Amino acid sequence: MAAELDRTDAAIVELLRQDGRLSFKELGERVNLSANAARDRVRNLLSRGVITGFHAHLDPGRIDKRLHAFVDVRLRSPDHAAQFERLVRAHPGVVETVHLTGSADYLLRAACEDPTELDDLINEMKESGGVRDTQTRLILRVV
Length: 143
Description:
Number of strands: 4
Order of helices and strands: HHHEHEEHE
């Protein structure tokens, strides 16, 4: 169920989307609230599940993993979804996984040291994750 936001909450969400490191003082100044009122608004948005967390966005090219890929995944059957999701949540080479509509069941983003590590991930998904087939595309650069 979508949460309804007033103008101030919508502005806070957008400001935090742009820069999650804003102080409550600066956030309040930008939406014409005191720092305490801005803090209370953010806490309320967190408790309502509108804001689910604060994250660092990393440049994949600047971290240790040198090979990045998108992998389309098709499961053997829908019954394998929980098994697959447990595997990818626990796998250190999986950066992000999304459940999709269309010909693929899932799209995952992998960050691996080399092609062998990517191959190991794909084989593990097929052997232990209920995956029927995959289609892999290497990421050359992010624009």
